[in-house]
Amino acid sequence: MKAKEIHAMSDKDLDKQLKDGRAELFNLRFQMATSQLDNTARVCAVKKDIARVQTEMRMRELAAEKKEAKPKAAKPAPAAKAATEPKAAATDTKKADSDAKKVEGA
Asked: Which of 13, 24, 52, 64 makes an SS bond possible with 9, Cβ 3.0 to 4.6 Å?
C-alpha cells in the first residue's frame, strides 16, 4: 500500500486497515512457525503497511491537537521575574538550615 493511498483514507478506514494488517501479520507469523509460509517477504511488507497507517494516524492526532491548542500568554521578562522572587531569602534559609544541622550534630 502506498502512502498516498493512506493519506486519502478516512479515520474509520485507517482503523479498519490497522486491524486487518495486524490480523494478517498474526496469520503470517503463524504460518511461518508451522513452515507453511511461501512468501516470507510478505511479513516485512505487512509490517511496513502497519507502520505507515500508524504514522498517518499519529500525524492526524498531532494536527488535531495543534488546532485545539490555545495561544499561550506572553512570559514575563527575566528582569520582572527576578524582581518578584527574592534570591537572598532563599540563600539565607539554606545557611540557617546547614548551621542548625551542624549544631545538632556536635
From this structure: 13
Q: Tell me how far apart the alpha carbons of residues 25 and 42 are, in angstroms, rounded to a whole number.
A: 9
Q: Would residue 64 count as lying in a domain? A: yes
Helices (H), 1-106: 3-8, 11-33, 41-68, 78-84, 87-105
Q: Is the distance from CB of 18 to CB of 53 less than 8 angstroms? A: yes
Q: What is the CATH number of the domain that holds 17?
A: 1.10.287.310
Domain that holds residue 28: 3-68
Residue 84 lies in a domain: no
Residue 32 CA to residue 45 CA, distance in Å, equals: 15
What pLDDT digit, counting tens, does each position of 53-82 carry?
999 999 999 999 998 886 666 676 666 555
Q: Are 46 and 25 in contact (CB under 8 A)?
A: yes
Give residue-wise pLDDT tens across range 92-101.
Answer: 566 666 666 6
| Number of structural domains the chain divides into | 1
